[in-house]
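<instruction>
Derive structure tokens from the sequence

<record> Sequence and structure tokens follow
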Amino acid sequence: MTQRPGRGAAGPSPGRRRGPQGRGARGSAGRDDKSGPGAARASGRPDGTGGRGGPRRPARGGTAPAPRSSDPAEPPGKGGSGKPKGAKGAKSTSKAAPPKAAPSKKASPKSGSAKKGSGTAPGKRTPVASPQGRAPARPRKDAGRGPGRTRRQRGGGSGPPRGPQRHRGVFDRRDPLKRLNIGLLAVAFVLSLFAGRLVQLQTIEDDRYAELALRQRIKEIELPALRGDITDAKGNPFAMTVEARSVFVDPSIIEPEKRQEIVNALAPTLGINPATVMKAVSKPDTQFVYLAHGVRPEKARMINNWGFAGIGTLPEYRREYPNGSLAAGVIGFVNDSGKGAAGLEAAMNDVLAGRDGRQRVELSLEGQHIPMGQDQKQAPVPGRGVRLTLLQDLQYKAQQAITDQVKASHAESGSVIVMDPRTGKILAMASAPGFDPNAYSESKPAEWGSPLVQDAFEPGSTGKVATAAAVLEHGGVDPLTPFVVPDRIRRFDRVFNDSHPHPTEKLTFAGVLAESSNVGTILASERIDEERLYKTLREFGFGEKTGLNLPGETAGNLRSPDKWSGVDRYAIAFGQGLSVNAVQMASVYATIANGGVRVEPSLVAGTVNDEDEFDAAAEPASRRVVSTGTARQISDMLEGVTTADGTAPQAQIEGYRVAGKTGTAERINTESGTYQGGGYVASFAGFAPADDPRLVVQVVLENPRRGSHYGGDVAAPVFRDVMSFALQTQKIPPTGSEPPTIRTHARD
């Protein structure tokens, strides 16, 4: 029985015969039923061997092997040997094949594998020499791996693959080259998008984005000017500028979870309401908010050391008032925004403040200055200092004296003015109660002003001096002119009284003034007409501002005669029915002390630049009001007021001649519009030495409610204390002259 050749035998498949050139003729006869598309082909080697270790072909020029038999029943053999494939112990030889190979015997089916030493492995074809003398094809390891999987298809030879091929599409995911190319195309596309955007930003829109970036970095910082100091006449400071810091926040870089921690730290340190701090650190759409001004440097350093992002400090200046409440009503204060808010700080703010500078700097996100960034600076112009006519030691004494008396008499308020009558310079302006400008927010706004110019009052008997001057100058009256003076008098529908009941007296005009008789003054004023009385009052400064340039000053109230009623002239004659401020009243007595020449009151001596160069203020205006003789007569009569027979013996100063006048005026009740229940204004104004006046002192107490309310009792003692101190500190000696004899009662 003919056995079928084993799988992988050498030579062409059955049914495919080779022609004379070694190619087998196509045909189907005798095809092995196990040969197929996956069967291996004999490649042939020059040596004629069928594989590794197989028989070599004969040397060049040897006998070519005979053509294979075309008998379909002839099984292919190994090199033409007739030995059965796989026989145990068989050895292959390299003999030339006979013209017709003997049929090979196949190993027994029971044998699972070829015997050891067999020349052919089980299941493989035996290579045979090709008709052209080539070596038989070497069995391929990839035989039987499936249709179409050949060595050349795995990247081997250069010829076309032998055997059937599977059709592949344009893209095969197993092809790495194509995948790499597609990946590179994708990367190139993305990079082209970035490149296009980069070109747009750096060429087309570069100016716009550069400007936006610069706006984010640029900050304009205000460089505050150094505010000028306010000093007394000797250069002692009332107000001075010291180094400080402002605290600011940048809400845009403060993290929301940090806000409460920042509020808890800053609010108590800066003395600010926590709600205010929270509002500042949470403010949207902003990068800069001032939180506090005038912070002391040591406190600012502590805040910086905390290291809160978005919290910073800037250098600035803070205003300090080293003497506390001393002259606070005159000096005023600077508020948190650095502007003068009261007193001279407000009135002369333009002079004191100077001109702030500006600096544009580039700041980093953390608020740090970029050293090489844009930096434009406009230097600030420092303010000029203001030198006053006040004397610090005298100011202190005046303020202490009036404060003590306000407390002792339970008065609503009080004021003291000390003035040089020859120059119009005010040497002291004290008021009580006062306030501390270093902590102005702790006081009431009503206390921030200066009552010496803001408060108007009816002068009462101190105003009789102006009437006396008009009568002596234009009414044909002298100090010895007699008047019969009852304690009351009727004019039209009104009765006018003296301050206390008394029998009818025959007094000289000097006695009328010494005893401060209202009735006697009315009788004397009838010697002149109302127009002359009004004109004299105006010349003394009634009804016009003093020119001290303090905010809120009142000009008082003095109506023209065409607006007077039938009895107004009588009340005006003894100091009621008109109103003045304390400085106006002090100026009246300074005019008498200066021989009848009124010098406009002045408070500012001049200004000082940053190099300490003094620029004196313009000389105050002056005008003659009454003659020197009239002023001398009034001065002599006023000396009688301070004698034992006058109303103010408590104003006497040992060793000095003192002239002055008391005043006790009713106040209008603001609720009823009448004098009933309005209280009193107690005052005293005088000068010393009377025969060579050097100083004028004006004292006013509003509504004293404890003890006496008369000027001679509550105001005269303050006058004495302040005047005594002023005479000593100014080293004004007594004149040593004898006072004139003042006859107060007329002879029969």
